[in-house]
Design goal:
disordered N terminus; 43% helix; single chain; 6 helices; 4 strands; disordered C terminus; alpha/beta
Length: 192
């Protein structure tokens, strides 16, 4: 008899956890890279910084209509002889549901995803490749500038607190500046 009580208790615990997890509306933030081969060090620096930013955003409720933000960073120099649209920026896109394939063969469903791309100029890419602090500085400037992607008419209709999202990102950048990780991006620049 005691065995069946234990097994029923075990079965109930995951349900309680699932109910708790479903009630949480928290942010999942990620950055994907398309880079030239000589930028592995710079992209690793930006990846580490963006992962810290993602941990900062994790657990904060910005609204129910945007739970996942995915930004593609295009750090590929334009090559002579190639079309200008090679590695072109794609328009911002909101999807209610996206199924992704995992390396182990499984699938995962993401809900309320907002994704967009930031394409860096050849000059920015050259500057990014010079030092870690320059890479973070340029990334922060482009990231804060890219938040205008959330100001589209379709996004304004959604339950998403852009002001809180922007302020959280800017506060994180200011904090990192104070730690001397980020040297000169203008995180206090007025935003619309």
């Amino acid at each position: 008899m005691s065995i069946s009580r234990r097994s029923s208790q075990r079965r109930q615990a995951p349900r309680e956890c699932l109910a708790f997890c479903k009630d949480k509306n928290t942010m999942d933030f990620g950055v994907a890279f398309y880079t030239d081969s000589d930028l592995s060090s710079a992209s690793a620096t930006i990846r580490e910084f963006s992962e810290r930013l993602g941990r900062e955003l994790d657990g904060i409720d910005f609204g129910t209509d945007v739970e996942n933000v995915s930004i593609g960073l295009i750090l590929v120099r334009t090559r002579q002889g190639y079309d200008e649209n090679w590695f072109a920026e794609k328009k911002p896109r909101h999807r209610k549901l996206q199924k992704i394939s995992l390396i182990d063969g499984g699938t995962k469903e993401l809900r309320n995803i907002f994704s967009y791309y930031i394409k860096f100029t050849n000059e920015e890419i050259d500057a990014i490749s010079t030092s870690a602090s320059k890479a973070i500085e340029i990334f922060c400037i482009r990231l804060t500038d890219s938040l205008t992607n959330f100001e589209t008419p379709s996004m304004k209709k959604r339950n998403f607190d852009l002001k809180k999202f922007r302020e959280t990102i800017l506060e994180f950048i200011r904090t990192e500046q104070n730690k001397s990780v980020v040297t000169t991006p203008d995180a206090t620049r007025p935003t619309s």
